[in-house]
# Entry
Amino acid sequence: MSIRGADSMDGGAARGDQYDDESEDYVGYWEGRDYEHAAEIAAVKRLIGRDGARYGLVCEVGGGFGRLSPVLKEYADRVMMFDPSSKHVGIAHRLLAGHAGVTAHHMHPGTIPLDDGTVDLVSMIRVMHHLPDPGPTLRETARVMKPGGRALIEVANSAHMLNKLRYAKRLRGIPRRPVDIRSAAKAAEGGIPFVNHHPDTVVRQFAEAGLRVEEKLSVSNLRSGTLKQRLGEDRLLAVEQRIQSPLAAINFGPSLFFLLRGDGAAPGAA
Ligand SMILES: C[S@@+](CC[C@H](N)C(=O)[O-])C[C@H]1O[C@@H](n2cnc3c(N)ncnc32)[C@H](O)[C@@H]1O
# Structure
């Protein structure tokens, strides 16, 4: 598998290297979040392992420091992880050194440096919240997918149950457009976008990119300090695993995981 030269298809909308900033500590972010990490692993395994599936090449877009790369490798011959942050790719090199068949590479946002129709599964987790306009990245995802290949995409969900209640109290509906969740001060500083997406809107955007939803899970449904203390993380996780599928129908949780199938047409691809 050759890695193509990188020419951005995202119109320069996102710099994508903001995690290189000294103030960013994404590795530290995961301290105390064992439940969320385990809930995501459970969702990943359930979706990509569906029907006993195995994959040749898996490509991770915005793979960060490689937190989930070894999990993906359990289902694949090879995992190529890409991220625009040099700091994250550097950490991933160290973290993944002992993992045969897993490699970490730098990418420019909006460009996956792989040839058309070469990837069996594209995984993009915790990246959509940095993409107020995910269209170009979704089209790029479809471009590299083999005909009939799959994508696993996580979406920060603006229509989760707590938000529905908050909006209902104000007699308002959840906006269909992406919602900026940064504080006013953070937004004024500029920096990396942080948005939640409406599930109906992203499903339409998936379809426009030629990606059809095969299955959806609602994830991190019990994200609460009180519940963690009262139930303990093991019990919390056991419940979480039972409810990820049924609660997906009402978009309950803060995070939605979509398993998508490509139609092979790769609209918009060069
Ligand atoms: C919250 S981290 C998630 C990392 C990893 N997927 C995980 O779940 O642990 C977001 C990652 O997306 C990367 N990123 C930011 N903008 C991006 C873009 N436009 N395309 C791809 N990756 C991007 C960041 O560098 C960062 O490593």
Notes: Residues 31 and 158 are 25 Å apart (CA to CA). Confidence is low (pLDDT under 50) at residues 5-13.
